[in-house]
Amino acid sequence: MNGVSKTLNRILRGTSDSSIRFDDLRAVLLHLGFDERIRVGHHIFTRDDVPEILNLQPRGAQAKPYQIKQVRTVLVARGLLQDMDD
Question: Whole-prediction pTM value?
C-alpha cells in the first residue's frame, strides 16, 4: 500500500483527522485529479466533475481537522474513491 492509499484510508476512517499532514492531504487530492492553485496561503482544489471547491490552509505542517472532514464528505458524496483503483 503506497503513501497516498494509506493517507486516504486514514481520511476515510475519520479517527485521526488532527494528525494528517497537509502535504499528504495535497498528495491525495492531486492523485484524484484535482487541480490546485495557491492564493495567499490558501490552497484551492477544484475538479471539473465536482461542484464543491475545497479551500484548504495548513496549520503548520498539519491539515486542519475540520477541513479533513470536508474532504472526506466530498470524496464519499461524489464517489471519487473508485478513482484510487486507477
Answer: 0.92
How far is Cα 42 from Cα 58, in angstroms, rounded to an integer? 8
Cα separation values, 20 from 17, 47, 76, 86, Å: 6, 22, 18, 23
- Give how many domains the chain has, as a whole number: 1
Task: For the chain, state the CA radius of gyration.
Answer: 12
CATH number of the domain at 22, please: 3.30.920.30
Mean pLDDT throughout 24-47? 96
CB contact set of 32 (below 8 Å; sequence gap of 6+): 47, 75, 80, 83, 84
User: 27 is in which domain, residue-wise?
Assistant: 3-85
pLDDT, tens digit, for every residue of 29-39?
Answer: 999 999 999 99
